[in-house]
Design a protein that fits this description.
With 249 residues, the chain is α+β, with helices and mostly antiparallel strands. It has helices at 15-31, 46-59, 79-86, 102-107, 114-121, 153-162, 200-209, 235-244; strands spanning 2-8, 35-41, 65-69, 73-74, 90-92, 127-128, 138-143, 148-152, 167-168, 182-183, 189-191, 196-198, 215-218, 224-226, 230-232. It has a single domain, classed as Spore Coat Polysaccharide Biosynthesis Protein SpsA, Chain A, CATH 3.90.550.40. It has eight helices and 15 strands.
């Protein structure tokens, strides 16, 4: 069973999210996959919100997987079941940053135009590993965003055992789903080896990979990230054109 966890700092979700979620629930019903929901509203500190949702998931033992879905994402309804069937510990969708890189747009091949060019010019917060082959539309990565991330229960239980210093009780902020013990799986950190500041999703990835775990990213699906406008991503096109230009992706 999948617990879908959605943090929303303002208590709202986008139409793209709602439409995609309804489609996802329908696909899960048809495929015999049980689902549940865990919302957390009015919490602007995203690491704390993700920690609360992860803690609630650990207490709801009937669920085998936690699927984070951010409230501003549009996503393929079949993605959740596809990730579940892939059967890896952590599987992530790749969605665009809410910013249009005009210089990248101008540098794209001329055969790309209109919406295709815009989608291919967006930036994506994923760090690929070099020399990895695509397996069923997924590749191993160093870091990936947590806005659409499927996590097996064993990942969080293993991390809780390995990082006892991350355990905490109730904080000074009252949040839904915070009852009992929680773990700061998603607290930000500084990677001293590379002198890098890691945001909450990258910090989670590092904590897991430091234990020998793997992160896999979906390189086939297309996601929309809603802000002042809808940033309709096309990561497959981005990879194709970036590889053509000799980049790392």
């Amino acid at each position: 069973m999948i617990l879908i966890g959605t943090p929303s700092y303002n208590g709202c979700v986008t139409i793209n999210y709602l439409d995609s979620l309804l489609g996802t629930l329908d696909v899960c019903r048809r495929e015999g996959v049980g689902t549940g929901m865990q919302f957390l509203a009015y919490q602007s500190l995203i690491p704390y919100a993700r920690n609360c949702i992860a803690g609630a998931f650990l207490r709801r033992r009937e669920f085998s997987h936690l699927l984070f879905i951010d409230a501003d994402l549009g996503f393929p309804p079949e993605a959740a079941v596809r990730y579940l069937r892939f059967d890896k510990d952590v599987v992530c969708g790749v969605y665009p940053v809410k910013h249009l890189d005009v210089d990248r747009l101008r540098s794209l091949p001329r055969e790309l135009s209109g919406g295709d060019a815009v989608s291919a010019s967006l930036q994506y917060t994923v760090k690929l590993k070099g020399g990895c082959e695509v397996d069923q539309g997924f590749v191993p990565v160093r870091y990936a965003p947590a806005g659409f991330m499927l996590i097996k229960r064993r990942v969080l239980t293993r991390m809780a055992e390995a990082y006892p210093e991350l355990r905490y009780g109730k904080s000074h902020v009252n949040a839904d789903g915070e009852e009992g013990d929680n773990w700061a799986f998603f607290d930000t950190l500084i990677d001293r080896e590379n002198n890098e500041y890691l945001p909450e999703d990258y910090a989670f990835c590092k904590r897991w990979t430091d234990l020998g775990g793997e992160i896999h990213a979906d390189v086939l699906s297309r996601f929309t990230h809603s802000g002042n406008c809808d940033f309709a991503g096309d990561y497959p096109a981005y990879l194709k054109n970036n590889c053509r230009a000799g980049g790392e992706g």
